[in-house]
Amino acid sequence: MRIGHGYDVHRFSAGRRFILGGVEIPYEKGLLGHSDADVLTHAVCDALLGAAGLGDIGGLFPDTDPKYKDADSLLLLGEIVRRLHELGYSISNIDATVLLQTPKIKDFIPQMKENLAYCCEILPSRVNVKATTEEGLGFTGAKEGAAAHAVCLLEEPS
Question: Are 57 and 49 a contacting pair, CB within 8 Å?
């Protein structure tokens, strides 16, 4: 078994869609980034890459490459999962936490879990997503942006 941890952060910006776990969340701002800035999916990507010792999402899909401009992060996750399977890894489970003050995302979490599980080719029961406000502290508490942490467990090739 191999454990991976991922973390991502993006600031809020007007004129952007707010995407988390592949779900568009109604909000007056979105997250600023080269791709769709989906902090949850990016954290999951980095956790998986870290567990396999394959670097990070920025190394595979650099923000200097125009082909990743406004990219759907679920597609990037799918490519990472494809690479993991080529190497013989299988994903046991994923646990993630989104940090943001607003908007409330509780009602969207089931679809986020479904999306992540589908891309990772695992059962939704093997994906957990939760959220915290950080009680108004820090940049997330000040409603300046959102962040996410994710951990995963990979089974090594036999």
Answer: yes
Model confidence pLDDT, tens digit, residues 55-81? 999 999 988 988 888 899 999 999 999
CA distance 97 to 40: 8
The neighbouring-strand residues paired with 91 are 154
- Is 0.90 surpassed by the pTM of this model? yes
Rounded to whole angstroms, the maximal C-alpha distance in the chain is: 48
- Closest by CA position to 147, among listed 138, 156, 157: 138
SS (H, E, C) the chain: CEEEEEEEEEEEECCCCCEECCEECCCCCEECCCCCCCHHHHHHHHHHHHHHCCCCHHHHCCCCCHHHCCCCHHHHHHHHHHHHHHCCCEEEEEEEEEECCCCCCHHHHHHHHHHHHHHHCCCHHHEEEEEECHHHCHHHHCCCEEEEEEEEEEECCC
Tokens describing residue 51: 């567990």
Q: 140, exposed or middle or buried, with CB in 10 Å at 0-12, 13-18, 19+?
A: buried
Tokens read off for 94: 């994923």
Nearest to 78 by CA among 109, 120, 108: 120
